[in-house]
Amino acid sequence: MMVLISYDVSTSDEGGRKRLRKVAKECQNHAQRVQNSVFEADLDYSTFLKLKSRLEGMIDQEKDSLRFYYLGNHWKRRIEHIGAKKTYDPEGVIIL
Questions:
Q1: Could you count the other beta carbons within 10 Å of the beta carbon of residue 59?
Q2: What's the pTM value of the predicted model, to 2 decimals?
Q3: Which of 7, 9, 37, 61 has the smallest CB count inside 10 Å?
Q4: Rounded to whole angstroms, how far apart are CA atoms 2 and 11?
């Protein structure tokens, strides 16, 4: 299923900057960055639940926020991209 993950981590102190780096790294390990704090992840449900749990454990819920948008399996008709930065197809060919 395709999930859009966005986050806003307060960076007013060193702890916030550290949380921001951790959240970004965890998202990069499982998803494709499409904007600064926005990732698209094409994951099976159990992998998504593990990622969500890890991210929830990293943030300070008094200062930070996470948002998950569930686009499901028929996500292609729900995403429209306009402008700079080429889009990608997570189901396409991967060149290493």
A1: 20
A2: 0.78
A3: 61
A4: 28
